[in-house]
Amino acid sequence: HDTTMKIVFTLLFGVASLTASPTTYHGYKLLSVKPRTHEEAQIVQHIVSSWLLDQWSWAKTPGAGVDVLVPPRLVHRFRNTLGRRHIPVTIKINDVQTLIEQQVTNHKRSHTLPRKFDHTDYHELDEIYSILDGSVADFPALLSVYSAGETYEGRDIRVVKVSTGGSKPVIWIDCGIHACEWISTATCQYFLDQLTAGYGNDSQVTTLLDSYDFHIMPCTNPDGYVYTWTVDRLWRKNRVPNAECHGVDCNRNFDSDFGGAGSSNNPCSDLYSGESAFSERESQAVRGSIEALPDVRMYFSLHSYSQLWMTPYGYTEQLPANYDEQYRVAGVSVRALEAVHGTKYNYGNIADVIYLAAGSSADWVYDSAKVQYSYGIELRDEGDYGYLLPPEQILPTAEETWAGIIAGINAI
């Protein structure tokens, strides 16, 4: 009976997602604003907040760009308002919907689900899970898949364990906790491909897997991810219904200064932290999985975008006890990453490098799970495409990030 109800429940939600009217972004522009003083930055923040605009990136220093998504009805007013104050505004994406349609139209979905890794395109959730199943079938001695939990809409939150056997320290990597950050989920798939294809063939990968087990969660927020394919490409949260709106930002739902700076108690906000810490099944899945592992040596949570390699803390500007060591290892990773394609990353603690953000996984993993090397990584790019990074950039992004991960592991 329970199984039947689960199937019916999943089908109903699948139909609802497919039949919901898709959100379109015709005429929406991604504008880059460059406040040069603290006062100008306050003006920009006031406009963004009072006009209920969607801010894609934040600036920590005067002169750095702030990316803002502006609907067509407000574009002229927004540019004029800032122009009167002589605050520079440039267009990064002229029509957001055009970029979205290019990605969806060019998606090469076949009649049968793929069973092999493909890093030339983004993949829907059923395609990703089919690829994982195919990999387990191809590498049964190396891979196993377990469910870390089930979402509100009844989908499994899968974790792939890569292990040569025995009890070894663990490297944990999760991706896609924010649904719209497709490059994160794609990069996790590349990591799995490298580990499986490389063991026994690549000396670096072989040494890694002889020393560590990897637990990789390629899509931490399956409900939200499906929703980005079927209804709203720029959806961030999960899909739990609230009083007026849907969704919780699962990376504000951890018990690390829950409800503090950089989160919201407004259920309609993209930064809504939820009713209480660990109220969400996605954050519970990460917590439960990590707590069940006896020796997690390093934690990586992949996001996009801004090209940042970050250490705790996000909820305070105070530094963790081993900050110097975390910073050293981050520097090793960033230099190895840059050596691959020349991509430049900044690194340091979350609050200093990007913004105050309470309730994040990286902080909870460090404080509560006692993992001494905990990192949040913001992948490509710096706003030319933002969340809509073209498929052609999947492979170079994944290659350089993998180099950074390997270097970091080897540095501890």
From TrEMBL:
Its cofactor is Zn(2+). GO terms for molecular function: metallocarboxypeptidase activity; zinc ion binding. Residues 121-412 form the Peptidase M14 domain. GO terms for biological process: proteolysis. InterPro entries: CARBOXYPEPT_ZN_1 (IPR057246), M14A-like_propep (IPR036990), M14A_act_pep (IPR003146), Peptidase_M14 (IPR000834). CDD domains: M14_CP_A-B_like (cd03860). One of its GO terms (cellular component) is extracellular space. Pfam families: Peptidase_M14 (PF00246), Propep_M14 (PF02244). The active site is at E378 (proton donor/acceptor). It comes from the Eukaryota. Gene3D superfamilies: Metallocarboxypeptidase-like (3.30.70.340), Zn peptidases (3.40.630.10). Keywords: Carboxypeptidase, Disulfide bond, Hydrolase, Metal-binding, Metalloprotease, Protease, Signal, Virulence, Zinc, Zymogen. Residues 1-20 form the signal peptide. Extracellular metalloprotease that contributes to pathogenicity. Belongs to the peptidase M14 family. This is Peptidase M14 domain-containing protein.
